[in-house]
Amino acid sequence: MEATTFTLHVNGRPHQVQADPATPLLYVLRNQLGLNGPKFGCGMQQCGACMVLVDGFAHPSCQLQVHRVGAAPITTLEGLTRPDGSLHPVQQALVELQAAQCGYCLNGVAMCAAGLLRQYARPDEQTIRNALFRVLCRCGTHERYIRAVQRAAELGASG
Amino acid sequence: MPSRRAFLKDTGRLTIAFCLLGALPAAEALAADDPRPGSLQDNPRLNAWLEVLADGRVRVLTGKIEIGQGIGTAVAQMAAEELNLPLNRVEVVLAETGRTPDERYTAGSASIEQSALSVRWAAAAARQQLLQLAAKRLRVPAATLQLADGAVRTADGRQHLTFAELLAGRQLTGEVPADTVLKPKNQHQVVGQPLRREEIERMVRAAPVYVQDMRLPGTVHARVLHPPGPGARLRGVDEAGLRQAVPGLLRVVVDGSFVGLLAADEWTAIKAHDWLKPRLQWTAGPALPAGQALPEVIRALPAKVDEVARRGDVASAPATGEKSFRATYFKPYLMHASIGPSCAVALFDKGTLHLWTHSQGVYPLRAAVAKLLGLPEDQVHAKGVPGAGCYGHNGADDVAAEAALLARAYPGHPVRLQWTREDEHLHEPYGSAMLFDLQARLDARGRLTHWHMELWSDTHSARPAGQPDKLLPAQLLAKPFEYKRAELSGGTSRNSEPLYQIPNMLINAHSFAGPLRVSALRSLGAFGNVFALESGMDELAQLAGQDPWAFRLAHLTDERARAVIEEARRLTQNVQAGPNEGLGMAFAQYKNQAAYLAVVARVWVSPEDHTPWVRQLWAAIDAGEVINPDGLRNQTEGGLIQAASWTVLEQVQFDQQQVRSHDWESYPIYRFDEVPRVEVSIVSRPDQPPLGAGEAAQGPTAAAIANAVHRACGVRVRELPIRPWKLAPSSAES
Ligand code: FES
Ligand code: FES
After folding, report:
1. Pocket residues for ligand 2 (CB within 6 Å)?
2. Which region is the signal sequence (chain B) (predicted)?
3. Residues above pLDDT 90, as percent of chain B
4. Domain A89-158 adopts which CATH fold?
5. Which ligand has an atom closest to residue A145 CA?
6. Fewer CB within 10 A of the end CB, N or C, for chain B?
7. Overall fold of domain A4-79
């Protein structure tokens, strides 16, 4: 396919990119916008490593073709950090609880948690587990991730 | 070595690091009476481990890479402690050839025991040298001086010299002596503290942490195509068709059965890969033994038998009142199944190959790749960059070798090779399937008198180790390197010998060459061995009519073993199993010489569909002196959860042609809805040496779950994984 020009709204700013319309958003974000948050894990919507927020909802970016994104606002892990450099409650909680081993899955957890907390300020444990269901972690950091999301909810409520 | 030096662009350094090319590892020859850690004996030069920077900060160098175990933080803690420096003034350099010490592999839970302890010794020797330099300059006895904040001070604080002033552009030299005085442990302020790993902040900020995130200028993207099954060979590539269907490819590299594609843009490389994959034609390799019970397949394979342990006489005549027991256990092939498929960046520039890799051993990889490419070793430079967690020998070395082959075909450009999910699932070396025949006897009082184990396993060690033949592409090239199978590896018998006091014992290991590619998976043979041993102990306790805790304790004299078991019992003393629930425990000392760990599992077995739900796991661990308690806790929590997933879900599936576990649906692992809660209690032993702990949870977790399942529903599962259909009531024993 011919490369086409798209305007993507990523982390609060418009970006013009040229891409084959069938390119999954993941590669546009990583290779054209130089973002590290979304990661390649499977390319099959099975692992959540590539998770972003589309219009505020967590969604894998590895099969989302760039021409389908339209004007929907995209947020990546980079975009959770506030303009002044301070951390989003989810990021803060992950650091505070030291919730990561290799950390490769952390993006998926953080984006799903950020999407969840927009909808439910104080989710219970089962709701958190359901919200993280699409994210695979091989290091076994699940316990800390669940507690970090609970902590993020507290931080969000107080902050 | 100009090309290598050119690569070391550190402006703040006082001297060029000691070039370690001549330092050959010689662990076999380590002096038994040398108190220094093995890695330090291999690389005794102080400045191999530690440099003082012009601004007074200290740089420590470790030959290990970060694989989520927090080694960077641990070594920084060691140096900060011995030199009385704030942690933020210690910089850590991880594995890089020509730069850091050669510590071979980051494996076997040895990062702390070897690397962190070597840094402790080097920093202590540095402290002694700095004190002596200052004593000479200030004309006062060294004993009256103190180290604080990057300087040496007199006791009255009136005079002080910074490290940089003391060295005046020079660097500490000489060897770290065997009589180096370490800081007394009761004065420790940094070591033993649950310090934060600074890389976690970089992860949450989406900084470029991983090799996958490297973006060197001019990078081109690569994909490779692998044979569908073992032994399959390429018949041909329709390159013209490919180039027409996917324009814009920079190179199509075909060497024997190795196929690589290069494109300026990653999506083009992916499209080319996806177009070509179904169109490549392969000759079939030898058929895999599908459709037969794997345990029986394994038992029938030719095997070399090695005696692991023998004492007393396992064949002695039966005594009156004695009971005998016999059972067969099995663990299937398991995957490392890293969340990030393997990736490497390679650049062939002016005759030198540069490699950025998440391999666990940059030095052995360098040697292997040099031979693969026919280059002198000093024209290969490998730098460790973190990847996703690997849990042993996964595709990291293979992808690096493949990237090297492609970089040679496209010199002057960094080549970033990303394996697909399917590449990783199908082509990583698995953890071997294992089979165990146990026969044991109890005397009339219920004491174990005889223990006879015959075990079967493929190797647990097929790392490249400096040779090219074990790199995946080496066997595919037009001029292949013949695969040399490793002899029986120590990993097979790891933890096969019980720590329990049993007068008559025989353990034989049968080493076979199985149908699938295998190598080191976290804990090697210990996972299967401890599963069999500790399941057997529960069954024997039942046969003896004894409580499983008391039965184990009655056969254990090692105080530290008893202490972790008691601690696990204390942790769970108020836990009551509900209906259809069971509590099970298990214990092992990893490698019979590293961390002690006892696990309790609480498992609920659904009365409707018989799914075993592991609700909770508790572990008590004694890892000797703990450098970073939060790091130890994190690794142990992870080990419990990963091992639980192995135990109840995982099994590599194959048919006659190929492995069928090619993605996360055909090889499911735990998701967030299933994972148990985990709790870890550390039995602290600050006066003891630190013990490797990263793999200690694997085996005991499996047995604790199997023992809990038995209590929950009455079914004893001896063949992993514990799938629901093995728990239907018809399988229950009478
Ligand atoms: S990479 Fe998108 S879900 Fe796995
Ligand atoms: S922390 Fe490594 S995969 Fe989750």
Report:
1. A 100-105, 137-139, 141; B 68, 339, 388-389
2. 1-31
3. 85
4. DNA polymerase; domain 1 (1.10.150)
5. 2
6. C
7. Ubiquitin-like (UB roll) (3.10.20)
CB–CB of A94 and B671 under 8 A? no
pTM of the model: 0.94
Strand pairing partners for B678?
A: B617
Q: Of A62, A66, A67, which is closest to residue A52 (Cα–Cα)? A: A62
B197 shares contact with chain A (CB less than 8 Å): yes
* A65 Cα to the center of ligand 1, angstroms: 13
Task: List helix spans (H) across B43-113.
Answer: 46-49, 71-83
What CATH architecture is B218-284+336-427? 2-Layer Sandwich (3.30)
Question: How does pLDDT run across B379-438, given as a tens digit for each residue?
Answer: 999 999 999 999 999 999 999 999 999 999 999 999 999 999 999 999 999 999 999 999
Question: What's the pLDDT tens digit per position in B645-654?
Answer: 999 999 999 9
Nearest CA in chain A to B221: A31
Which residue from B61, B48, B62 is spatially nearest to B19, judged by alpha carbons?
A: B48
Residue A159: pLDDT band (50, 70, 90) is low
Cβ separation of B421 and A44 shorter than 8 Å?
Answer: yes
Q: Domain segments of chain B: what residues?
A: 36-191, 218-284+336-427, 434-731
Q: What angle do CA A76, A79, A84 make, to 5 degrees?
A: 165
Residue A71 Cα, gap to closest chain B Cα (Å): 22
Measured between CB atoms, which of B205, B208, B669 is closest to A136?
A: B669
Instruction: State which H helix or E strand residue B51 sits in.
Output: strand B50-52
Q: What is the ipTM of this complex?
A: 0.98
- Which CATH code, of 3.40.1190.10, 3.40.50.150, 3.30.365.10, 3.40.50.620, is assigned to B434-731? 3.30.365.10
Q: What are the residue ranges spanned by the domains of chain A?
A: 4-79, 89-158
- Nearest residue (CA) to ligand 1, atom 3: A45
Q: Hey, which residues 305-344 in chain B have their CB within 8 Å of chain A?
A: 336-341
Q: Is the CB–ligand 1 distance for residue A42 below 6 Å?
A: yes
Q: Which atom of ligand 1 is nearest to the CA of B664?
A: 4
